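Sample A.
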Amino acid sequence: MNTNPLPLRAYHLPAEISWWPPAPGWWIVAALLLLLLAVLIWWQYKRRRSLRLHGLRMLHEIRTQWQADHNDLHMLQAVSALLRRIAISRFPRSQAAALNGEAWLHFLDETLDHNKSHAFSQGLGEIMADAAYRPAVEVDGKALLKLAERWINRISRLHRKK
C-alpha cells in the first residue's frame, strides 16, 4: 500500500538563463551605440573636411588677389592670418592663439611635419615673423602659397582638439 496520498515527483529547477542571445532591449542599446559611433565618426570627418576646404578656398582667394595686385606684404599678412585662424580652430586656443614671432613659426614647422623640415622658421616662411613691421617685403609668393596649402592639408589630417 502507498503511504503518500498524492504521488508527486521531486521538484525541478528551471534551466539556467543563458546570457546569449541577449534580450531585445540590449539589441536596441547596441544598435543605438553603433549609430552614435557612426554619427560621431561622420561628424569628425565632415568637420575636418570642411575646415580643409574652407582654408583652401580662402587661400585661393588670397592667391587670386595677389595675382591681381602683386602686393607681397598684403598677401603675406593674409596668409599668416589664415594660418592662425585655422590653427586656432584646430588646436586648443591656449596652444595656438598666443604664439607670435619665432614661436609661431616653430609651431607651424612642428605641425607641418614634426620638425623634420624648417620651412617656416628657417626657410620660406621666416619672413612671416616680422613682415607686419616692414614697410615693404619681397617674397616668392607662389612658393609661400604652396607651403601654406601643404600646411592646411596636413592640419586637416591631424587628430587634435580640446
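Sample B, a different protein:
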Amino acid sequence: MASLMSRTNNLPNGLLLGWSEETASATPIWDTSREGHLITIAPTGAGKGVSCAIPALLTWQGPAIVIDPKGENYAVTARRRRAMGHLVHRLDPFRIVGDRRGDTLNPLDLIDPNADDFQDNAAVVAKLCMQDNSTLADPFWDERATAMIVAVICELFRVMKRQPTLKDVQEAIRGAPINDLPENPLLPRGSEAPKPKCISVRNVITTAEFSSERTRASIMATAQAHMGFLRSPAVHTCLTDSTITLDDITAGAMQTIYIILPPEKLITHAKLLRLWVGVMLAAISRRRRAPPQPTLFLLDEAAQLGPLSELKVALTLMRSYGVRVWTFWQDLSQIKATYPNEWESIVNNCSVQQYFGAKSPPSKASLRSYLGDALPKDDLTDMQQLIFDGGATKVLKRASYLLDPIFAGVAAPNPFHAPLRQTGQR
C-alpha cells in the first residue's frame, strides 16, 4: 500500500486530458478545474476506458460515481481508490465482479416522510420509474400512472413500520397485501409469536382521483408495466436495505461508487440505471455549499439512460454544486436523439469537449460539419483527439493507462486485456 501511494502522490488531483507533443518531450495536459463538466464523443471500441475513464479514476482524488457496464473500471481502479482512502462501493446486482454480493441502494431513501417536500420527492422517484412520455401523442396514461405510484408511495410511508421498497409499491399496485414486518427467523417454527401484519393500500387507488373502475384498471396496468423491471429477485435485493447512504453523497464523503450492469442488460434494465443515477444526482442537488472536493460523475453509455431530466439539470444548472459530470457518447447523433431540443446547450455547457476520430463516413461527415476547420484536414489518427478546453482548440495524443509511464504499477490487472499489453511502458 505504501509503495502504491508513493508512486502516485506526486500526480495532480486532476483529470488527464492527453499529451502535448509540441515540445521535444511529451507533456501531460491536466484539467485541474473545480468546476465545469466534460463530454467525450468517441465511437464504440475507440478506447474511452483506456484513455479517459480509467486514467481519471487512477488520479482523481475526490469522490466519484461511475457507470461501469463490464466491471472493468472496478477491476482496474478499485485498489487504487482504496489506497486514496476511499470507501469503495459496488452496485453489482448480477455479480459481474466476483461472487460476493454487492452493495445496495433503496431509491426511496430519498424521501423523508416528515419533510415539507415529501410528496415532491415521491414524485421524483415515481418519474424515474416511468419511460419518458415526451414522444407520446396522449401522455394521459403515463401521467395518471405516475400519480398512482406517488399516492401508493406516500401511503406506504404512512402505514408501514419499516422502510418501504419499490417492490412493496409494485405489490401494492398489483393488489397483493404487504408484510409490514418480516418474520423473525430466530423464533422456532410453530411458536405462538405474532405473525407479520399485512397491510393493503387498495383504498388509495380506488378513490375518485383515478376515475371509474374501468379507467382505473388501465392506469394500474400502465403502472405495473412500467415497474416490470422489478421482476428479477437480483434487482429487488439491490434496491433494499441500503448500504450506501444518500447523505454521504450529499456531503461529498470520500467514497467511490461503481454501478455495474452488463452490456446485455443496459437496455432491459435501463430503468434501474436511471433510478440510481437520478437519485444520486437528486442527492447532490441538495447541497447548500460545495464540499471540499468535487464529485466526479462518470457516465459511460449515457444514451442508455434515455432523456433524464436530473442529468440535464446537472449539466446546465449545477456547475457550482461541487459536481463534475463527464458523459460519454458514441457520436453526435446519440445526443441529438436523446435531447433533441437541448443537445446544443448540453454540449456548450461542458467546459472540456473531447472528440475522437469517427470510423464511418456518415459519422465523419457529421463530425466535420459540426467542428468545421477545427478538425484536421486529414482527420484524427487512432491515437489523436481534438480537445476544446477553456475556449482553446488543440490536437493531443491520447492518454493510455496501459502505456503512459506515470501509471506504471498503479493499475490492477485488467481482465479484458492480455497481460502482455499491460507493460507500463510508453
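Observation for Sample B: The first strand starts at residue 15 and ends at 20.
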